[in-house]
Amino acid sequence: MKKANLESRLPDTRRADFADLLAAEALVTLHVFANAAAFLIAPHLTETTVDIGGVDEVLTDNAPRALHGALWELDQAIAAFAADDLRLAATLAAFAEGLMAKAAARAETVPRAAAYAQASWRVEADQLTLSGFTPARKARGTALTMVFRKPSEVIGKHIAKHQAMKLAKMLMAYDFDRRLNPFAELGGFIFTFMGDGAPGTGKTTLIQMMAGRIHDYCMVGGYPFRYQNFSIDQIDSYQGRPGQNARAFIDQIRDPAGIGFGTIDDIDQVTGKRGDRQSSAGQQEVTAVFMQAFAGANTVVRGNCTFGMFSNFPENLDDALRQRAGARFIVDGPQSREDISTFSRSFWGRTTQSPWATTS
What we know:
Blueprint: H1 2-6, H2 15-41, H3 63-81, H4 85-107, H5 114-117, E1 120-123, E2 128-131, H6 158-171, H7 182-186, E3 192-196, H8 203-221, E4 225-229, H9 241-254, E5 259-265, H10 267-270, H11 281-295, E6 305-311, H12 319-322, E7 327-330, H13 337-348
Parallel strand pairs: 3-6, 3-7, 4-5, 5-6
Antiparallel strand pairs: 1-2
Helix pairs in contact: 2-3, 2-4, 3-4, 6-8, 9-11
């Protein structure tokens, strides 16, 4: 058809099909370019991140023009944001992620692109698998700067501690070759859980303990581990940005090439009830993304990650979102006399005298 078009022999009845095929070819070219760039740049990324905004130059006239437009916009982004080598890598990754998302979204409206979406190829030299419009990310374990807690430092909340330690062990049964966890197949795997309790009962300590256990297991097994917390600073007044942040958070943790643990601390603050006028548009966007990701029609539970939702007031969550928690971890803090005694010794130190102690 290209040859016939160059020679002006293309029938008028085929021009519409020809335009659709060119658009599909352009989108496939853009996605493959961005997919390969994101995959190959992943090992060079650090904790440095760059917000380049959206990707606008997505042309679908033909493949060469589409690639030319993408490279022009990438050059503009590099000039604006890549002040050093670390920011250069972050800029390339951010642009590739944005271009992939834009091309995949545009492909949903192009019927001729469906053939590529259902196909798969393997570039053995780079260990790159192209599976339709699905990003092929190379897993990388980031160096966590959080404070890890040992199980002995978690005082009280015995049931929640037992459930967290059990779930951490379940994650280690993930099969990286099959990309499936037997616990997810047989049942019993907790994909989402709700940790609730009064303020000061130790929800943060429980997060630090569970993240530390998974991190230590992954260090022994040589697995990449990703931990990320979604907090209130991800809510932006810019329309669409909170939803994008929530989707990026979900994709980062669910990457099947690694072990992931995602937490949403104070989830009642970052999400909003549907129909509640006091909730911002950003909170409503985050709620919609979390509901779709945790128990949506396209949700696939592989067993390589888990999400913990923590709140002092779980009753303030949207009812449908709260019901998406597969388990409930009661974080009740020290309860027994022994717990309170152990907590006091841990808090004040074994050799430090309590300020309330009396001297004779």
